[in-house]
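S2.1 Query sequence (Glutamine--fructose-6-phosphate aminotransferase [isomerizing])
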Amino acid sequence: MCGIVGAVAERNVVQILLEGLRRLEYRGYDSAGVALIHNGQLNTVKRTGKVQSLSDAINSENGLGATGIAHTRWATHGSVTETNAHPHVSTERFAVVHNGIIENHKVLREALISQGYTFNSDTDTETIAHSIAEQMKITGDLLQSVLNAVKTFHGAYGTVVVDKEDPNTMVVARSGSPLVIGLGFGENFIASDQMALLPVTRRFIFLEEGDVAEITRTTVKIIDTDGNEVERDIIESLVEHDAGDKAGYRHYMLKEIYEQPSVIRNTLKDRVSADGLADNIFGRDSESIFAKTEYVKIIACGTSYHAGVTAKYWLEQYAGVSCDVEIASEFRYRKSVVPANSLLVTISQSGETADTLAALKLAKEIGYTSSLAICNVDGSSLVRESALSFMTRAGTEIGVASTKAFTTQLACLLMLTIAIGKHKNMPKEVQQNVLEALLTLPTKLEETLQLASEVEDLAEEFSDKYHSLFLGRGDQYPIAMEGALKLKEISYIHAEAYASGELKHGPLALIDAEMPVIVVAPNNELLEKLHSNVEEVRARGGIMYVFADKEAQFESDETMRVVNVPHCMESIAPIVYTIPLQLLSYYVALIKGTDVDQPRNLAKSVTVE
Ligand code: AGP
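Output C-alpha coordinates follow.
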Protein backbone atom coordinates (compact mmCIF):
# COMPACT_ATOMS: atom_id res chain seq x y z
CA MET A 1 0.00 0.00 0.00
CA CYS A 2 1.14 3.59 0.35
CA GLY A 3 4.81 4.15 1.14
CA ILE A 4 6.58 6.99 2.93
CA VAL A 5 10.21 8.13 2.85
CA GLY A 6 11.60 11.33 4.34
CA ALA A 7 15.01 12.79 5.13
CA VAL A 8 16.66 15.74 6.90
CA ALA A 9 20.31 16.06 5.92
CA GLU A 10 23.01 18.44 4.78
CA ARG A 11 23.39 16.79 1.40
CA ASN A 12 20.88 16.64 -1.44
CA VAL A 13 18.42 13.87 -0.51
CA VAL A 14 16.58 13.54 -3.83
CA GLN A 15 18.21 10.26 -4.88
CA ILE A 16 17.79 8.84 -1.36
CA LEU A 17 14.07 9.59 -1.50
CA LEU A 18 13.66 8.16 -5.01
CA GLU A 19 15.62 5.00 -4.17
CA GLY A 20 13.50 4.66 -1.02
CA LEU A 21 10.33 4.87 -3.11
CA ARG A 22 11.70 2.30 -5.57
CA ARG A 23 12.34 -0.06 -2.70
CA LEU A 24 8.71 0.37 -1.61
CA GLU A 25 7.26 -0.15 -5.09
CA TYR A 26 6.58 -3.80 -4.37
CA ARG A 27 3.96 -2.78 -1.84
CA GLY A 28 1.63 -1.59 -4.63
CA TYR A 29 0.79 2.01 -5.59
CA ASP A 30 -0.66 4.07 -8.41
CA SER A 31 1.05 7.47 -8.16
CA ALA A 32 4.06 9.03 -6.49
CA GLY A 33 5.29 12.43 -5.34
CA VAL A 34 8.04 14.33 -3.59
CA ALA A 35 8.22 17.65 -1.69
CA LEU A 36 11.66 19.24 -1.34
CA ILE A 37 12.73 22.25 0.66
CA HIS A 38 15.54 24.21 -0.97
CA ASN A 39 16.59 27.84 -0.49
CA GLY A 40 13.42 28.59 1.47
CA GLN A 41 11.20 27.23 -1.31
CA LEU A 42 8.85 24.24 -1.15
CA ASN A 43 8.89 22.37 -4.45
CA THR A 44 6.40 19.57 -5.07
CA VAL A 45 6.53 17.12 -7.98
CA LYS A 46 3.93 14.38 -8.50
CA ARG A 47 3.21 11.83 -11.20
CA THR A 48 0.65 9.09 -11.74
CA GLY A 49 2.07 5.70 -12.64
CA LYS A 50 5.51 4.42 -11.81
CA VAL A 51 8.22 5.99 -9.63
CA GLN A 52 10.35 6.11 -12.79
CA SER A 53 8.08 8.85 -14.24
CA LEU A 54 8.48 10.84 -11.04
CA SER A 55 12.23 10.32 -11.12
CA ASP A 56 12.42 11.47 -14.77
CA ALA A 57 10.41 14.58 -13.92
CA ILE A 58 12.55 15.50 -10.90
CA ASN A 59 15.83 14.77 -12.65
CA SER A 60 14.82 16.81 -15.68
CA GLU A 61 14.40 19.86 -13.47
CA ASN A 62 17.51 19.02 -11.37
CA GLY A 63 15.47 18.75 -8.18
CA LEU A 64 17.41 19.72 -5.07
CA GLY A 65 16.71 19.65 -1.35
CA ALA A 66 18.46 18.65 1.88
CA THR A 67 15.06 18.06 3.46
CA GLY A 68 12.30 16.23 1.67
CA ILE A 69 9.40 13.83 1.95
CA ALA A 70 8.21 11.35 -0.64
CA HIS A 71 5.24 9.04 -1.08
CA THR A 72 3.76 6.28 -3.18
CA ARG A 73 -0.03 6.42 -3.09
CA TRP A 74 -2.52 3.57 -3.32
CA ALA A 75 -5.79 5.41 -3.89
CA THR A 76 -8.49 5.21 -1.25
CA HIS A 77 -10.19 8.64 -1.23
CA GLY A 78 -10.17 10.24 -4.67
CA SER A 79 -9.16 8.74 -7.99
CA VAL A 80 -5.66 8.26 -9.34
CA THR A 81 -4.62 11.78 -10.40
CA GLU A 82 -1.62 14.03 -9.86
CA THR A 83 -3.75 16.33 -7.75
CA ASN A 84 -4.70 13.52 -5.40
CA ALA A 85 -1.13 12.20 -5.18
CA HIS A 86 0.86 13.15 -2.06
CA PRO A 87 2.49 15.32 -0.72
CA HIS A 88 -0.39 17.67 0.03
CA VAL A 89 0.43 21.26 0.77
CA SER A 90 -1.28 23.84 2.98
CA THR A 91 -0.77 27.61 2.78
CA GLU A 92 2.18 27.02 0.42
CA ARG A 93 4.18 26.28 3.57
CA PHE A 94 3.48 22.82 4.99
CA ALA A 95 3.78 19.56 3.04
CA VAL A 96 2.32 16.30 4.29
CA VAL A 97 2.48 12.63 3.29
CA HIS A 98 0.15 10.10 4.86
CA ASN A 99 -0.52 6.35 4.96
CA GLY A 100 -3.88 5.21 6.31
CA ILE A 101 -7.34 6.72 6.33
CA ILE A 102 -8.68 9.72 8.27
CA GLU A 103 -12.21 8.47 8.81
CA ASN A 104 -13.69 11.77 9.98
CA HIS A 105 -12.23 13.68 7.03
CA LYS A 106 -15.63 14.98 5.88
CA VAL A 107 -16.32 16.72 9.19
CA LEU A 108 -12.77 18.08 9.32
CA ARG A 109 -12.99 19.28 5.72
CA GLU A 110 -16.19 21.22 6.38
CA ALA A 111 -14.72 22.85 9.49
CA LEU A 112 -11.50 23.77 7.67
CA ILE A 113 -13.38 25.20 4.70
CA SER A 114 -15.36 27.37 7.11
CA GLN A 115 -12.02 28.54 8.54
CA GLY A 116 -11.04 29.70 5.07
CA TYR A 117 -8.96 26.77 3.72
CA THR A 118 -9.27 25.77 0.08
CA PHE A 119 -9.07 22.10 -0.82
CA ASN A 120 -7.32 21.13 -4.03
CA SER A 121 -7.76 17.36 -3.83
CA ASP A 122 -10.44 14.80 -2.98
CA THR A 123 -8.23 13.15 -0.39
CA ASP A 124 -8.64 12.70 3.33
CA THR A 125 -4.93 13.57 3.67
CA GLU A 126 -5.37 17.19 2.74
CA THR A 127 -7.29 17.68 5.99
CA ILE A 128 -4.08 16.77 7.86
CA ALA A 129 -2.10 19.50 6.09
CA HIS A 130 -4.71 22.20 6.76
CA SER A 131 -5.32 21.06 10.35
CA ILE A 132 -1.63 21.44 11.10
CA ALA A 133 -1.51 24.83 9.40
CA GLU A 134 -4.44 25.90 11.56
CA GLN A 135 -2.76 24.67 14.75
CA MET A 136 0.43 26.54 13.79
CA LYS A 137 -1.54 29.79 13.99
CA ILE A 138 -2.20 28.96 17.65
CA THR A 139 1.04 27.31 18.82
CA GLY A 140 3.72 28.54 16.42
CA ASP A 141 5.47 25.21 17.04
CA LEU A 142 5.33 22.32 14.56
CA LEU A 143 5.65 19.49 17.10
CA GLN A 144 2.93 20.95 19.33
CA SER A 145 0.75 21.62 16.29
CA VAL A 146 0.96 17.98 15.21
CA LEU A 147 0.29 16.80 18.79
CA ASN A 148 -2.83 18.99 18.84
CA ALA A 149 -3.96 18.10 15.33
CA VAL A 150 -3.75 14.31 15.75
CA LYS A 151 -6.21 14.56 18.65
CA THR A 152 -8.85 15.55 16.11
CA PHE A 153 -8.18 12.62 13.73
CA HIS A 154 -10.17 9.37 13.80
CA GLY A 155 -8.76 6.48 11.83
CA ALA A 156 -5.29 5.32 10.92
CA TYR A 157 -2.28 7.38 10.06
CA GLY A 158 1.42 7.28 9.60
CA THR A 159 2.11 10.86 8.62
CA VAL A 160 5.10 13.15 8.07
CA VAL A 161 5.03 16.94 7.83
CA VAL A 162 7.65 19.48 6.87
CA ASP A 163 7.53 23.26 7.13
CA LYS A 164 9.46 25.37 4.63
CA GLU A 165 10.05 27.97 7.37
CA ASP A 166 11.91 25.35 9.45
CA PRO A 167 13.79 23.31 6.85
CA ASN A 168 15.78 21.22 9.35
CA THR A 169 12.84 19.45 10.94
CA MET A 170 10.31 16.74 10.11
CA VAL A 171 7.48 15.92 12.50
CA VAL A 172 5.97 12.46 12.23
CA ALA A 173 2.99 10.74 13.88
CA ARG A 174 2.04 7.08 14.03
CA SER A 175 -1.34 5.56 14.79
CA GLY A 176 -2.34 2.36 13.03
CA SER A 177 0.20 2.73 10.20
CA PRO A 178 3.84 1.88 10.87
CA LEU A 179 6.71 4.37 10.79
CA VAL A 180 10.37 3.75 11.41
CA ILE A 181 13.05 6.38 12.07
CA GLY A 182 16.40 5.68 10.39
CA LEU A 183 19.40 7.11 12.24
CA GLY A 184 22.31 8.44 10.20
CA PHE A 185 25.35 10.48 11.14
CA GLY A 186 24.41 14.15 10.93
CA GLU A 187 21.26 13.15 9.06
CA ASN A 188 18.09 11.27 9.92
CA PHE A 189 15.33 9.57 7.99
CA ILE A 190 11.78 8.34 8.24
CA ALA A 191 9.99 5.60 6.33
CA SER A 192 6.97 3.37 6.49
CA ASP A 193 9.22 0.31 6.09
CA GLN A 194 12.91 -0.12 6.95
CA MET A 195 13.48 -1.61 3.47
CA ALA A 196 13.31 1.93 2.06
CA LEU A 197 16.23 3.10 4.17
CA LEU A 198 18.64 0.16 4.07
CA PRO A 199 20.96 1.87 1.56
CA VAL A 200 21.55 4.70 4.08
CA THR A 201 21.34 3.16 7.53
CA ARG A 202 20.84 -0.04 9.51
CA ARG A 203 20.00 1.68 12.82
CA PHE A 204 16.30 2.06 13.40
CA ILE A 205 13.77 3.24 15.95
CA PHE A 206 10.35 1.68 15.44
CA LEU A 207 7.72 4.15 16.59
CA GLU A 208 4.97 2.79 18.79
CA GLU A 209 1.25 3.37 18.52
CA GLY A 210 0.38 6.98 19.34
CA ASP A 211 3.97 8.25 19.13
CA VAL A 212 4.66 11.70 17.68
CA ALA A 213 8.30 12.55 16.95
CA GLU A 214 10.31 15.59 15.97
CA ILE A 215 13.31 14.65 13.84
CA THR A 216 16.17 16.98 12.98
CA ARG A 217 19.55 16.18 11.43
CA THR A 218 21.01 15.43 14.86
CA THR A 219 18.12 14.85 17.26
CA VAL A 220 15.05 12.69 17.70
CA LYS A 221 12.42 13.64 20.29
CA ILE A 222 9.57 11.19 20.82
CA ILE A 223 6.34 11.99 22.66
CA ASP A 224 4.16 9.02 23.59
CA THR A 225 0.42 8.76 23.63
CA ASP A 226 0.28 10.13 27.22
CA GLY A 227 2.21 13.23 26.22
CA ASN A 228 5.47 12.15 27.88
CA GLU A 229 8.86 12.37 26.21
CA VAL A 230 10.15 8.80 25.89
CA GLU A 231 13.23 6.89 24.72
CA ARG A 232 12.68 4.02 22.29
CA ASP A 233 15.19 1.24 21.63
CA ILE A 234 17.59 1.56 18.72
CA ILE A 235 17.52 -1.68 16.73
CA GLU A 236 20.34 -2.81 14.45
CA SER A 237 18.57 -4.27 11.40
CA LEU A 238 19.51 -7.72 10.15
CA VAL A 239 17.28 -7.48 7.08
CA GLU A 240 19.12 -8.32 3.85
CA HIS A 241 20.12 -5.15 2.06
CA ASP A 242 19.74 -6.67 -1.36
CA ALA A 243 16.42 -8.39 -1.05
CA GLY A 244 15.47 -5.94 -3.78
CA ASP A 245 17.62 -7.84 -6.29
CA LYS A 246 15.99 -10.37 -8.65
CA ALA A 247 19.18 -12.49 -8.74
CA GLY A 248 18.76 -13.19 -12.45
CA TYR A 249 15.14 -14.34 -12.23
CA ARG A 250 12.62 -12.65 -14.46
CA HIS A 251 10.34 -11.80 -11.53
CA TYR A 252 10.64 -11.59 -7.76
CA MET A 253 7.83 -14.10 -7.52
CA LEU A 254 9.81 -16.70 -9.44
CA LYS A 255 12.91 -15.99 -7.38
CA GLU A 256 10.87 -16.40 -4.21
CA ILE A 257 9.31 -19.66 -5.43
CA TYR A 258 12.80 -21.05 -6.04
CA GLU A 259 14.10 -19.80 -2.69
CA GLN A 260 11.68 -22.03 -0.80
CA PRO A 261 14.00 -24.99 -0.15
CA SER A 262 16.70 -22.73 1.26
CA VAL A 263 14.45 -20.48 3.32
CA ILE A 264 12.71 -23.52 4.80
CA ARG A 265 16.13 -24.92 5.76
CA ASN A 266 16.61 -21.64 7.57
CA THR A 267 13.17 -21.86 9.19
CA LEU A 268 14.04 -25.29 10.59
CA LYS A 269 17.61 -24.44 11.57
CA ASP A 270 18.38 -24.86 15.30
CA ARG A 271 14.72 -25.61 15.86
CA VAL A 272 14.18 -29.12 14.52
CA SER A 273 16.44 -32.16 14.61
CA ALA A 274 15.92 -35.90 14.57
CA ASP A 275 16.00 -35.71 18.40
CA GLY A 276 13.02 -33.43 18.57
CA LEU A 277 12.12 -29.78 18.73
CA ALA A 278 14.65 -27.56 20.48
CA ASP A 279 13.46 -26.24 23.87
CA ASN A 280 11.49 -23.03 24.18
CA ILE A 281 11.64 -22.12 20.52
CA PHE A 282 8.31 -20.32 20.85
CA GLY A 283 9.58 -18.27 23.80
CA ARG A 284 10.44 -18.79 27.44
CA ASP A 285 6.82 -18.97 28.66
CA SER A 286 5.59 -21.02 25.74
CA GLU A 287 5.89 -24.43 27.41
CA SER A 288 3.67 -23.45 30.32
CA ILE A 289 1.20 -21.74 27.96
CA PHE A 290 1.04 -24.76 25.63
CA ALA A 291 0.62 -27.12 28.60
CA LYS A 292 -2.53 -25.20 29.58
CA THR A 293 -3.85 -24.76 26.04
CA GLU A 294 -7.10 -26.61 25.29
CA TYR A 295 -8.25 -24.56 22.32
CA VAL A 296 -6.40 -22.70 19.58
CA LYS A 297 -7.96 -19.75 17.78
CA ILE A 298 -6.13 -18.73 14.61
CA ILE A 299 -6.73 -15.33 13.01
CA ALA A 300 -5.25 -14.07 9.74
CA CYS A 301 -6.03 -12.72 6.25
CA GLY A 302 -5.52 -13.98 2.69
CA THR A 303 -2.70 -16.43 2.21
CA SER A 304 -1.87 -16.36 5.92
CA TYR A 305 -5.48 -17.41 6.60
CA HIS A 306 -4.98 -20.40 4.30
CA ALA A 307 -1.93 -21.38 6.35
CA GLY A 308 -4.16 -21.18 9.42
CA VAL A 309 -6.83 -23.42 7.88
CA THR A 310 -4.16 -26.02 7.08
CA ALA A 311 -2.95 -25.85 10.69
CA LYS A 312 -6.46 -26.58 11.95
CA TYR A 313 -6.30 -29.98 10.23
CA TRP A 314 -2.85 -30.63 11.74
CA LEU A 315 -3.62 -29.44 15.25
CA GLU A 316 -6.77 -31.53 15.50
CA GLN A 317 -5.42 -34.63 13.68
CA TYR A 318 -1.92 -34.82 15.15
CA ALA A 319 -1.96 -32.79 18.37
CA GLY A 320 -5.55 -33.59 19.39
CA VAL A 321 -6.26 -29.99 20.29
CA SER A 322 -9.39 -28.20 19.19
CA CYS A 323 -8.82 -25.32 16.75
CA ASP A 324 -10.81 -22.71 14.84
CA VAL A 325 -9.61 -20.34 12.17
CA GLU A 326 -11.17 -17.00 11.33
CA ILE A 327 -10.61 -14.19 8.87
CA ALA A 328 -9.42 -11.16 10.84
CA SER A 329 -11.82 -8.70 9.20
CA GLU A 330 -14.75 -10.88 10.30
CA PHE A 331 -13.52 -11.54 13.82
CA ARG A 332 -12.89 -7.88 14.56
CA TYR A 333 -16.49 -6.86 13.93
CA ARG A 334 -18.47 -9.61 15.63
CA LYS A 335 -19.17 -10.70 19.15
CA SER A 336 -17.43 -13.96 19.93
CA VAL A 337 -17.02 -16.25 22.88
CA VAL A 338 -13.59 -16.96 24.37
CA PRO A 339 -13.31 -20.64 25.33
CA ALA A 340 -11.39 -21.46 28.50
CA ASN A 341 -7.63 -21.98 28.22
CA SER A 342 -7.41 -20.58 24.71
CA LEU A 343 -4.31 -19.69 22.78
CA LEU A 344 -4.70 -16.98 20.16
CA VAL A 345 -2.44 -17.42 17.13
CA THR A 346 -2.15 -14.65 14.55
CA ILE A 347 -0.36 -15.32 11.26
CA SER A 348 1.01 -12.58 9.04
CA GLN A 349 3.84 -12.17 6.58
CA SER A 350 4.14 -8.42 7.14
CA GLY A 351 3.01 -8.12 10.74
CA GLU A 352 1.33 -4.85 9.73
CA THR A 353 -2.00 -6.02 8.29
CA ALA A 354 -4.57 -3.62 9.72
CA ASP A 355 -7.34 -6.21 10.14
CA THR A 356 -5.08 -8.74 11.87
CA LEU A 357 -3.71 -6.08 14.23
CA ALA A 358 -7.23 -4.89 15.07
CA ALA A 359 -8.34 -8.50 15.63
CA LEU A 360 -5.43 -9.08 18.03
CA LYS A 361 -6.31 -5.91 19.93
CA LEU A 362 -9.95 -6.97 20.22
CA ALA A 363 -9.00 -10.52 21.22
CA LYS A 364 -6.95 -9.17 24.12
CA GLU A 365 -9.83 -6.93 25.19
CA ILE A 366 -12.36 -9.77 25.22
CA GLY A 367 -10.22 -12.07 27.30
CA TYR A 368 -7.67 -14.02 25.26
CA THR A 369 -4.75 -14.04 27.67
CA SER A 370 -2.10 -15.81 25.56
CA SER A 371 -1.13 -14.70 22.09
CA LEU A 372 1.40 -16.01 19.61
CA ALA A 373 2.33 -14.22 16.36
CA ILE A 374 3.74 -16.25 13.48
CA CYS A 375 5.33 -13.57 11.39
CA ASN A 376 8.04 -12.82 8.85
CA VAL A 377 9.01 -9.36 10.05
CA ASP A 378 10.79 -9.06 13.35
CA GLY A 379 9.94 -5.84 15.15
CA SER A 380 6.64 -5.51 13.28
CA SER A 381 3.55 -4.29 15.15
CA LEU A 382 2.08 -7.79 15.39
CA VAL A 383 5.25 -9.18 16.93
CA ARG A 384 5.55 -6.32 19.38
CA GLU A 385 1.94 -6.61 20.46
CA SER A 386 1.92 -10.41 20.99
CA ALA A 387 3.13 -12.20 24.10
CA LEU A 388 4.93 -14.89 22.06
CA SER A 389 6.34 -14.64 18.57
CA PHE A 390 7.84 -17.08 16.12
CA MET A 391 9.68 -15.85 13.04
CA THR A 392 9.11 -17.62 9.74
CA ARG A 393 12.56 -16.53 8.46
CA ALA A 394 11.44 -16.40 4.81
CA GLY A 395 13.59 -13.34 4.12
CA THR A 396 12.04 -10.27 2.55
CA GLU A 397 9.19 -11.18 0.22
CA ILE A 398 8.78 -8.63 -2.57
CA GLY A 399 6.23 -10.26 -4.91
CA VAL A 400 2.73 -9.19 -3.92
CA ALA A 401 1.60 -12.80 -4.35
CA SER A 402 2.86 -14.55 -1.27
CA THR A 403 4.83 -17.75 -1.88
CA LYS A 404 7.78 -18.42 0.42
CA ALA A 405 6.05 -16.63 3.28
CA PHE A 406 3.21 -19.18 3.00
CA THR A 407 5.34 -22.32 2.96
CA THR A 408 7.51 -21.09 5.84
CA GLN A 409 4.34 -20.30 7.80
CA LEU A 410 3.23 -23.88 7.21
CA ALA A 411 6.58 -25.24 8.39
CA CYS A 412 6.25 -23.12 11.55
CA LEU A 413 2.71 -24.34 12.10
CA LEU A 414 3.83 -27.97 11.87
CA MET A 415 6.44 -27.15 14.53
CA LEU A 416 3.69 -25.57 16.61
CA THR A 417 1.61 -28.74 16.20
CA ILE A 418 4.40 -30.79 17.76
CA ALA A 419 5.12 -28.18 20.43
CA ILE A 420 1.49 -28.19 21.59
CA GLY A 421 0.96 -31.88 20.84
CA LYS A 422 3.70 -33.05 23.16
CA HIS A 423 1.68 -31.60 26.04
CA LYS A 424 -1.50 -33.26 24.75
CA ASN A 425 -0.80 -36.95 24.40
CA MET A 426 0.41 -36.68 20.81
CA PRO A 427 1.94 -40.17 20.46
CA LYS A 428 5.73 -40.15 20.44
CA GLU A 429 5.84 -41.97 17.10
CA VAL A 430 3.55 -39.37 15.50
CA GLN A 431 5.80 -36.57 16.85
CA GLN A 432 8.81 -38.41 15.43
CA ASN A 433 7.09 -38.93 12.11
CA VAL A 434 6.23 -35.24 11.71
CA LEU A 435 9.77 -34.26 12.70
CA GLU A 436 11.24 -36.60 10.11
CA ALA A 437 8.86 -35.27 7.50
CA LEU A 438 9.95 -31.70 8.28
CA LEU A 439 13.59 -32.64 7.94
CA THR A 440 12.96 -34.07 4.45
CA LEU A 441 11.02 -30.98 3.39
CA PRO A 442 13.76 -28.84 1.79
CA THR A 443 14.89 -31.75 -0.41
CA LYS A 444 11.30 -32.61 -1.34
CA LEU A 445 10.73 -29.01 -2.40
CA GLU A 446 13.87 -29.09 -4.54
CA GLU A 447 12.58 -32.23 -6.29
CA THR A 448 9.14 -30.68 -6.75
CA LEU A 449 10.56 -27.52 -8.31
CA GLN A 450 11.85 -29.73 -11.11
CA LEU A 451 8.26 -29.98 -12.34
CA ALA A 452 8.53 -26.38 -13.56
CA SER A 453 8.78 -27.07 -17.29
CA GLU A 454 5.96 -29.63 -17.18
CA VAL A 455 3.76 -27.08 -15.38
CA GLU A 456 4.81 -24.36 -17.83
CA ASP A 457 3.53 -26.55 -20.73
CA LEU A 458 0.26 -27.07 -19.01
CA ALA A 459 -0.15 -23.33 -18.36
CA GLU A 460 -0.61 -22.80 -22.14
CA GLU A 461 -4.03 -24.40 -21.85
CA PHE A 462 -5.23 -21.70 -19.44
CA SER A 463 -4.40 -18.68 -21.56
CA ASP A 464 -7.91 -18.38 -23.07
CA LYS A 465 -9.83 -19.38 -19.95
CA TYR A 466 -11.89 -17.02 -17.77
CA HIS A 467 -12.85 -19.34 -14.91
CA SER A 468 -11.36 -22.27 -13.03
CA LEU A 469 -12.10 -24.56 -10.12
CA PHE A 470 -9.59 -25.91 -7.59
CA LEU A 471 -10.41 -29.06 -5.64
CA GLY A 472 -8.80 -30.65 -2.62
CA ARG A 473 -9.83 -32.74 0.38
CA GLY A 474 -8.72 -32.64 4.01
CA ASP A 475 -5.55 -30.64 4.56
CA GLN A 476 -5.29 -30.18 0.79
CA TYR A 477 -8.51 -28.15 0.73
CA PRO A 478 -6.75 -25.00 2.04
CA ILE A 479 -3.99 -25.68 -0.49
CA ALA A 480 -6.64 -25.64 -3.23
CA MET A 481 -7.86 -22.32 -1.74
CA GLU A 482 -4.34 -20.93 -1.85
CA GLY A 483 -3.86 -22.18 -5.44
CA ALA A 484 -7.06 -20.41 -6.48
CA LEU A 485 -6.00 -17.18 -4.74
CA LYS A 486 -2.61 -17.23 -6.49
CA LEU A 487 -4.20 -17.74 -9.90
CA LYS A 488 -6.71 -14.92 -9.50
CA GLU A 489 -4.18 -12.51 -7.98
CA ILE A 490 -1.67 -12.60 -10.79
CA SER A 491 -3.43 -13.93 -13.89
CA TYR A 492 -6.84 -12.31 -13.20
CA ILE A 493 -8.56 -15.59 -14.06
CA HIS A 494 -11.55 -16.19 -11.84
CA ALA A 495 -10.72 -19.15 -9.62
CA GLU A 496 -12.72 -20.80 -6.87
CA ALA A 497 -11.69 -23.54 -4.49
CA TYR A 498 -13.96 -26.24 -3.16
CA ALA A 499 -13.56 -29.09 -0.77
CA SER A 500 -14.10 -31.87 -3.34
CA GLY A 501 -16.96 -33.35 -1.35
CA GLU A 502 -18.91 -30.13 -1.88
CA LEU A 503 -18.88 -30.46 -5.68
CA LYS A 504 -22.24 -32.14 -5.94
CA HIS A 505 -23.80 -29.55 -3.65
CA GLY A 506 -23.65 -26.86 -6.30
CA PRO A 507 -20.48 -26.19 -8.27
CA LEU A 508 -20.97 -29.26 -10.46
CA ALA A 509 -23.48 -27.12 -12.38
CA LEU A 510 -20.56 -25.03 -13.67
CA ILE A 511 -18.58 -27.86 -15.20
CA ASP A 512 -17.93 -27.77 -18.93
CA ALA A 513 -14.90 -27.83 -21.21
CA GLU A 514 -14.31 -24.10 -20.66
CA MET A 515 -13.88 -24.49 -16.91
CA PRO A 516 -10.55 -26.16 -16.09
CA VAL A 517 -10.63 -28.14 -12.85
CA ILE A 518 -7.38 -28.35 -10.90
CA VAL A 519 -7.13 -31.21 -8.42
CA VAL A 520 -4.52 -31.77 -5.69
CA ALA A 521 -4.29 -35.47 -5.01
CA PRO A 522 -1.63 -36.83 -2.67
CA ASN A 523 -1.83 -40.49 -1.78
CA ASN A 524 -3.76 -40.38 1.49
CA GLU A 525 -6.80 -42.01 3.03
CA LEU A 526 -9.13 -39.67 1.12
CA LEU A 527 -7.83 -40.81 -2.25
CA GLU A 528 -10.73 -43.09 -3.10
CA LYS A 529 -13.19 -40.33 -2.34
CA LEU A 530 -11.19 -37.98 -4.55
CA HIS A 531 -11.26 -40.50 -7.40
CA SER A 532 -15.07 -40.47 -7.20
CA ASN A 533 -15.09 -36.65 -7.32
CA VAL A 534 -12.88 -36.74 -10.40
CA GLU A 535 -15.29 -39.16 -12.08
CA GLU A 536 -18.16 -36.78 -11.32
CA VAL A 537 -16.32 -34.04 -13.21
CA ARG A 538 -15.35 -36.35 -16.09
CA ALA A 539 -18.97 -37.48 -16.53
CA ARG A 540 -19.95 -33.83 -17.11
CA GLY A 541 -17.34 -33.16 -19.78
CA GLY A 542 -14.93 -31.30 -17.49
CA ILE A 543 -11.21 -30.96 -18.28
CA MET A 544 -8.96 -31.75 -15.33
CA TYR A 545 -5.39 -31.00 -14.32
CA VAL A 546 -4.41 -33.34 -11.54
CA PHE A 547 -1.33 -32.94 -9.34
CA ALA A 548 -0.98 -36.42 -7.93
CA ASP A 549 1.32 -38.81 -6.17
CA LYS A 550 2.62 -41.56 -8.53
CA GLU A 551 0.90 -44.16 -6.38
CA ALA A 552 -2.41 -42.32 -6.57
CA GLN A 553 -3.32 -44.05 -9.86
CA PHE A 554 -4.34 -41.11 -11.96
CA GLU A 555 -3.48 -41.53 -15.66
CA SER A 556 -3.43 -38.79 -18.29
CA ASP A 557 -6.05 -39.16 -21.02
CA GLU A 558 -8.06 -36.87 -23.30
CA THR A 559 -9.94 -35.27 -20.38
CA MET A 560 -7.23 -35.29 -17.76
CA ARG A 561 -3.61 -34.17 -17.56
CA VAL A 562 -1.72 -35.66 -14.67
CA VAL A 563 1.46 -34.18 -13.22
CA ASN A 564 3.20 -36.57 -10.83
CA VAL A 565 4.39 -34.84 -7.70
CA PRO A 566 7.32 -36.50 -5.83
CA HIS A 567 6.14 -38.87 -3.14
CA CYS A 568 6.40 -37.34 0.35
CA MET A 569 5.34 -38.05 3.92
CA GLU A 570 1.72 -37.19 4.60
CA SER A 571 2.17 -34.34 7.08
CA ILE A 572 4.24 -32.21 4.67
CA ALA A 573 2.13 -32.94 1.58
CA PRO A 574 0.22 -29.62 1.83
CA ILE A 575 3.55 -27.77 1.64
CA VAL A 576 4.88 -29.88 -1.24
CA TYR A 577 1.66 -29.60 -3.31
CA THR A 578 1.70 -25.82 -2.92
CA ILE A 579 4.73 -25.61 -5.23
CA PRO A 580 3.13 -26.78 -8.52
CA LEU A 581 0.14 -24.52 -7.89
CA GLN A 582 2.45 -21.51 -7.41
CA LEU A 583 4.27 -22.41 -10.61
CA LEU A 584 1.00 -22.83 -12.48
CA SER A 585 -0.24 -19.37 -11.53
CA TYR A 586 3.15 -17.86 -12.35
CA TYR A 587 3.33 -19.37 -15.85
CA VAL A 588 -0.31 -18.57 -16.64
CA ALA A 589 0.34 -14.94 -15.63
CA LEU A 590 3.45 -14.90 -17.80
CA ILE A 591 1.45 -16.04 -20.82
CA LYS A 592 -1.25 -13.47 -20.08
CA GLY A 593 1.38 -10.75 -19.78
CA THR A 594 0.21 -9.37 -16.45
CA ASP A 595 2.35 -7.47 -13.96
CA VAL A 596 3.35 -10.56 -11.98
CA ASP A 597 5.08 -8.84 -9.07
CA GLN A 598 2.69 -5.92 -8.73
CA PRO A 599 -0.72 -7.17 -9.87
CA ARG A 600 -3.35 -4.51 -10.49
CA ASN A 601 -5.26 -3.10 -7.51
CA LEU A 602 -3.28 -5.10 -4.94
CA ALA A 603 -0.82 -4.08 -2.25
CA LYS A 604 1.80 -6.11 -0.47
CA SER A 605 1.01 -4.97 3.01
CA VAL A 606 -2.62 -4.06 3.62
CA THR A 607 -2.30 -1.41 6.28
CA VAL A 608 -5.79 0.04 5.87
CA GLU A 609 -9.18 -1.62 6.35
C1 AGP B 1 -1.15 -13.16 -0.70
O1 AGP B 1 -0.73 -13.57 -1.96
C2 AGP B 1 -1.83 -11.88 -0.64
N1 AGP B 1 -1.19 -10.88 -1.36
C3 AGP B 1 -2.58 -11.51 0.60
O2 AGP B 1 -3.68 -12.35 0.65
C4 AGP B 1 -1.87 -11.55 1.97
O3 AGP B 1 -1.56 -12.86 2.31
C5 AGP B 1 -2.77 -10.90 3.02
O4 AGP B 1 -2.98 -9.55 2.68
C6 AGP B 1 -2.25 -11.01 4.42
O5 AGP B 1 -1.02 -10.36 4.55
P1 AGP B 1 -0.08 -10.63 5.78
O6 AGP B 1 0.33 -12.06 5.73
O7 AGP B 1 1.08 -9.68 5.58
O8 AGP B 1 -0.86 -10.32 7.02
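The longest helix spans residues 428-449. The mean pLDDT is 93.
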